[in-house]
Amino acid sequence: MDKFIIRGGNRLSGSVPISGAKNATLELMPAAILAPGVYNISNTPDIRDVWTMSRLIGSMGAYAELNNNCLHLNTSNITSLEAPYEYVKRMRASIHVLGPLLARYGYAKVSLPGGCAWGPRPVDFHLKGMERLGAEITLEGGYIIARADRLKGAAVSFDIASVGATFNVMSAATLARGRTVITNAATEPEVTAAGRFLQKMGAQIEGLGTSTITIDGVDDLKPVDEETIPDRIETGTLLAAIAISGGSATLTNANPYHLAVVLERLEEVGCEIDIRCDEISLKAPEHLNPVNVTTAVYPGFPTDMQAQWIALMSCATGASTVTDIIYKDRFTHVPELARLGCDIVVKDNSATIRGGRSLTGATVMSTDLRASVAMVLAGLVAEGETEVLRIYHLDRGYESLEKKLSALGADIRRVKTEEL
Ligand code: EPZ
User: Fold this and answer.
1) Closest Cα to atom 10 of ligand 1
2) Using a 6 Å cutoff on CB, does residue 163 contact ligand 1?
3) pTM over 0.90
């Protein structure tokens, strides 16, 4: 079990590159099940969730190896059509194998994802979507059992524009007989990237990036190579780190268009932002303005930036509110941030942050991926030393975060602990 030890107070400067997107990679890898063969996916982030997905599809008979951020994948020899609990309990995105397995092999056995640190995260849209395409779905012993001779195109609509359910239905529909129309589909860049990948494999898909996606099923797809898009949440996180430290630095290999709303809010905070192609430079103001945010589906303010924003607003000159309408209970970071001296009150799905207090280093406990990085941000400004425990949560989605922050001048180091 590693932990971070951070000594606050350094203003960040210099430049670092952004890694490939975790949430795009976790769609590209399962999509490769649809066409047995060899794939090379460059700009793949070297993170725990990619290792877990590699082990999951490896347990099915496929081969996955990551070398210098290039993922070499071979799905020619899939013999098991099961996603065991041991993988799904580590990573909910394991459910992304459901659609591809069902479409390719007419059968899938996928463990139901259990609970999550911040409340219920049902998969009913995924199951309803598969049933709309003609699959027979049963739940046995904590597992989803899905069967279908050949899926049939259908109209599928979601109550909420779900990222995962859109991917599962879109990928399954690529090999269905006939046309599928998904309404209220997710428009997140990661879903669009997966759709582009499927198009390259030979899928007939229209409407990517809009809330209506049309898929005309084909008989076969072929393996292709791809480059993963930059990670917009890592980008937003590092920009918030530069801002909270009062620094001035540049991120390269980024895609500024994927986080327009975050850049807008950072400008309202008082940051100077300069965009040149795939480079984003941020210069922090002397005093951070308090700015309210409410999360929303893309292109709204991402819930995956909510915790980081609360940490940033803890250093603003005044009060602000952060409301999460996607995950109403996603506030497990608040009591830990309070240990560093943040003044945050949560009521229902809204946090009120009273900024302007100086923070003091303490030992804090990670509870999930984004919550843990919010503590790192607060640790960058807290007086003295902050210890962030159980950073395996953070390693799920950030590639060598401490190396990138050190390269920007932060005093942060990774330390092994005795904790089991
Ligand atoms: C994806 O999760 C991301 N994960 C999450 O990022 C992100 O927070 C989330 O989208 C929202 O942007 C990956 O891409 C691997 P949803 P996903 O289905 O697909 C409800 C991170 O930090 N819903 O879009 O699971 C659901 O409860 C992770 O990188 C149902 O009710 O999210 C939520 O309120 C955390 N039934 C809303 O829809 C369903 O069947 C959006 O969820 C599916 C979803």
Assistant:
1) 163
2) yes
3) yes
